[in-house]
Amino acid sequence: METNINKIYTTNNPAKRLMGWLFYFSNFVIKIIPMLRHIIMFKLKENAITPEGKKMAETVKKELEKLKDSIDAIKKLEAGINVVDVPHAYDVILTVDFDLPEHLEIYKVHPAHQAFIKFNKNYSVSKAAVDYLY
Asked: To which H or E segment does residue 98 belong?
């Protein structure tokens, strides 16, 4: 069985050879420098399933989504609201992807993030977070 690297060596088309090498090395670089995913869940003062809680959740979600436009270190940001009524559920979730693990530190101290933390004290009673490389 011929490997991808052997196909790169044996092709006569220079453009295909170049593209093959670029693809090969881009996969290698991605594996060397992993991205970081930051997930945080918020439990609000009112359950997001209730009408008042849903308004609170929408407000928190909108504020979270503003972070994407304010903080350049964020590669991707997604916020969501819980739709299942179970006692152990959190109400709002935030998922943020960073190109480099160091970007999380930039995000943490950014004035927009600090403003959200201050804002959120009026809405959340607890939170849980996970950060992992992928």
From this structure: strand 92-98
